[in-house]
Write a structure and sequence with these properties.
single chain; alpha+beta; Uridine Diphospho-n-acetylenolpyruvylglucosamine Reductase, domain 3; Vanillyl-alcohol Oxidase, Chain A, domain 3; 8-stranded antiparallel sheet; 5-stranded antiparallel sheet; binds flavin-adenine dinucleotide; FAD-bd_PCMH_sub2; oxidoreductase activity; FAD; Oxid_FAD_bind_N; FAD linked oxidase domain protein
Length: 459
Amino acid sequence: MVSRIRVSEIQLTPGDAGFDAEIAPFNRAIAHRPALAVGAACASDVAAAVTLAASEALPVTVQATGHGAVMAADGGLLISTRRMRGLSIDAHARRARVEAGLRWGEIVRETAKLGLAPLNGSSATVGAVGYLTGGGLGPLSRAHGLAVDHVRAFDLVTPDGRLRRVDAESEPELFWAVRGGKANFGVVTAAEIDLFPVARLYGGGLYFPAAAIPALLARYQEWVAELPEQAYAAFALLRLPRLPHVHELLGGRLVGHLRVAHLGSAEQAERDLAPMRAVARPLLDTVREMGYDEIATVHHEPDHPVPSWGRGALVRELTPAAAQALSAAAGPDSDSPLTVVELRPLGGAVARAPERPSAVDRRDAAFTLNVLGPLRPDVRDVVPAAGERVLAAMAPWLTGGSLINFQGSAVAPDQVAAAWTPETFARLSRLKREVDPHHLFRTGHVIVPGAHDTDQEHR
Ligand SMILES: Cc1cc2nc3c(=O)[nH]c(=O)nc-3n(C[C@H](O)[C@H](O)[C@H](O)COP(=O)(O)OP(=O)(O)OC[C@H]3O[C@@H](n4cnc5c(N)ncnc54)[C@H](O)[C@@H]3O)c2cc1C
């Protein structure tokens, strides 16, 4: 029996009306079963919940949307932040303060009214804070850097239940670690982030027939390398199901999807797109001038909950042989059941050392490679193996590292550790031992306290 606490919102135990809805993640493949769910309305609710968890040695899980749910919370206490939706914008200083329950779409909608943009991700329904704690690679990253590079401060409830202001001056080590270390160091209740004067873009999707995928992949790396930093273009092998909300030209077939966000003029963007347009004629072309509030239409990701499996890796170089290997593993001649096999470009400002260093240190790759498949009953037995086969086929060109936000279902300790260089992982793990000695925060992408202490330290 778990004790109750005074919180301004909701606390529910299994069997209570609303319990299942409170804890349900976007990724329906994961079924949380906490002993207590707290629907926090403010930072002091979060602090009360963490204090209770600490006094009763209950593991803590934090969830805003469940987009990043990778491991079931079993027993313990789940803190749902989705009611924490405060947003304040200082247009003059180009800063915003975002509470832990906000999704990117809600933030972008408000900043766009002021001609400003955050360094949001591709999906409007992903939570801003979960994304920020994992680095945050988005359509503006080549131009301005990873989202963590432009976080000014966090309000953080640490595993001892204390609410701390964490910034470069007050808590430099925690500030470094939370930017990339996910929920391993506590619950972020709010973040202060920079905004950028971006009001519009030229972008959308070019959807190519499957037969063109090998030639597009063969051209893609060289083409991206020539693009200015203000241009972003991901390339996905997309197999969407035939459903009423899926465009009739796209459902039930494989297509190559070039996902474009260009901050230059329409004329310059079209000049830059010409080499890819020259490879094949798109089946569907949604590229156009748009306001920044339409940025989520570039990737056009699903906004309804689905059970899914996913993993990510970093690609050193997409050589012609690598492009061929990817085509063979997931392209038109494969029987891949995966919905998305996607390359997203790094480079530009992502690759440069940021002014405020963070724990995100896998920056020197050319692309992320993300593989994602549905866990519907008809394919759930084959999807993970198919995804692993794509990664195995690409192994000669992978760096061995990953970005933690794209680690998806990879939660084994060595897979989690691959998101950082060994030095960074050892530093995170040492700090984890200091900040969370009883290892209360141990669901999701878990850093074990003191896991990578050197032999020297053990002696
Ligand atoms: C459709 C889709 C598109 C995506 N696009 C991008 C993208 O463009 N770029 C990118 O970098 N990533 C992207 N991701 C990955 C995404 O950023 C991560 O899955 C992120 O963790 C989701 O955060 P969430 O709050 O929505 O999910 P949740 O499942 O609620 O949270 C996931 C994890 O984030 C951490 N977290 C959440 N809230 C807090 C908090 N208050 N304090 C501390 N830690 C917290 C925890 O570790 C938690 O387990 C995408 C994911 C999906 C499903």
